[in-house]
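Look over this one:
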Amino acid sequence: MNQQLFRLAVVQSPLCRLAATVSNCEQTRPIPFVHAGVRMVAARSLLCIHRDPAQLMMLQEEGFSVITATHGSQGLRQLASKPVDAVILEYHLGLLDGAAVADEIKKVRPQLPIVMLAESLELPEGALKSVDALVTKCDGPRFLLEAIHSVLQAKDRPPSDTTSAEPVAPGEEAMPNPAKCQILVVDDDPSIREGFAMSLMDAGYDVVAADDGFRALSQLRKRLPEVVLADLDMPGMSGFELLSVVRRRFPQVSTVAMSGTYVGNELPFGAIADGFFAKGGQSRNLLRTIQSLLLTAPARISDHYRRCAPAWIPRNGNDSEAMPYVILTCTECLRAFPMNLTEGTTGEVLEIECRSCHSMNRYIVQPSNHSAA
């Protein structure tokens, strides 16, 4: 089907005829009003296209104005008649899935943030192309609220910070305020960990630290930092594994891998991070890397949500027949199964079908030349 025919087919679909009326709805921000001399802001309005009464009640208790719909067509009708600040959309909606509804919404309201709710991170290819954030139902209400606040802040953020005390030279971008940014430093070496923490605090950042991957994940459950700086070579849970988990569970967090084993500026294979710093390099290079990540965070984090990161799998040794193997866990049904390794199963991202539920999973298996954690 050529492009002209495709466009004609879209315009003629009943769903799109309904969605087209949305463009006539005035797109407004929360309306400021004055009461007793105090400037106040109306509650943010959310269009919730899903069927979870407990979640709707939670959003109302958090102060949001909630508009509800139980299926996609009803949601588009609501959007056509009522201005909203964001859409909370369930993926499984029956005949019309959430991905199709998100596509129609973005055609007429391209700047409207959409947070999708799904049973798991594994969705069909292209399902997230019109979505700004993905939250799984097992993540709980706190992660949903963080995702909502994150997309609303991105929507409200001006193109540049014009309130900076110093003028920005032509061709330069305003630097983010370090005092408002938290960095989590993860390294098993106390002297290195404390050294990085001091350098970052001297630059004005709020810094927290963890001495291994498991304590880092515990810290992430308390508060999500803007950046995680993690050593790749740590016992217990390596930085490769930690960064894989962070990308999959906390895609809104920027990440920097660091190592004394690898040199240069290129990410080592298997390190799922936004930047790399070779230990022993000048601290100002690390500060430049972090500043760059903070400046480009909105666009990059949106890409994090759209692309499901592969899981890092450490080696398990050899089986009874002296064959190297790993234990894989399906991200959909959580069943574990072994897989023997050959030269062709390391050094690249693998797509493996689960033996139980037959869903496809993406993995990076620890290469044989990586030191065991």
About this structure: The chain has three domains: 9-156, 178-306, 311-365. The two ends are 52 Å apart (CA to CA). DSSP finds eleven helices and 17 strands in the chain. Confidence is low (pLDDT under 50) at residues 1-41, 160-172.
